[in-house]
Amino acid sequence: MDNPQLMEHLKSALLDLELKRSTLLSKFEPTYRPVQEVEQQIKQAREAIVAAENAPLRDETTDRDPTYEAVRSELTRPTPI
Q1: N vs C: which end of the chain shows fewer Cβ within 10 Å?
Q2: pTM for the whole thing?
Q3: What mean pLDDT do residues 45-57 have?
């Protein structure tokens, strides 16, 4: 199962960063430090989108009962003298 809210958030953040870069480039040179920082953030956002697409969320079911495990752990613990 995938997470549409996460993808929507990441894509929205990417769009905001690209708009910010366009605004900065209309006023400054590409070598200007804030422009380079925004481009780095865009790169990170794109990597996060690719990672989210390649590793979708999934439910995992195990045969372990956490209550049973906790009780068993308590029973096997040595008692203080």
Answers
A1: C
A2: 0.65
A3: 85
